[in-house]
Amino acid sequence: MSDCIFCKIVNKEIPANIVYEDDQILCFHDVSPQAPVHVLLIPKKRIVSMDDVQEEDKELMGHMMVKIKEIAQILGLENGYRVVNNCGEHGMQTVGHIHFHILGKRKMAWPPG
Ligand code: AMP
Question: Which residue intervals of 19-57 are DSSP H helices?
Fold first, then answer.
């Protein structure tokens, strides 16, 4: 059994507000939203971080990238959005299951903090 909180969401052991799901990936609302719309896109397979992506994950990672625009459409992000991946300690990653934040419905600032 994994202690990974996102694996528990994948396995439906803890609830999440799901936006999109297929056999490979899951997208759900962040519990602590940093924008009016803030969801997380994850692979069902646990990859710890961007630093752990392997050659064999190319198709899965590509699948996630292709699905982002579909998810943005579901969420009504017609004016654009930001996609963020935090990797490792300096990237301020807090959950060890690779995920892409999709944030929208407000204008973002740059550079990030
Ligand atoms: P990061 O800091 O990039 O690793 O992002 C982890 C994100 O997961 C944070 O934005 C948290 O608010 C979010 N999060 C943590 N636990 C849950 C949960 N059970 N359901 C939804 N989002 C979560």
Answer: none
Atom 13 (ligand 1): residue with closest C-alpha? 30
Nearest partner of 29 among 13, 18, 44, 14, judged by Cα: 18
Return d(Cα 82, Cα 18) in angstroms, integer.
Answer: 19
**Model pLDDT for residues 35-79, shown as the tens digit of each residue:** 999 999 999 999 999 999 999 999 999 999 999 999 999 999 999
The ligand 1 atom at the shortest distance from the C-alpha of residue 38 is 10
Q: Residue 43: beta bridge partners?
A: 25
Q: Whose CA is nearest to atom 20 of ligand 1?
A: 31
Q: Which two tokens stand for residue 79?
A: 């004016």
Report the catalytic residues: 99
Read off the DSSP letter of residue 107.
Answer: P
| Whole-number Å distance between alpha carbons of 61 and 43 | 8
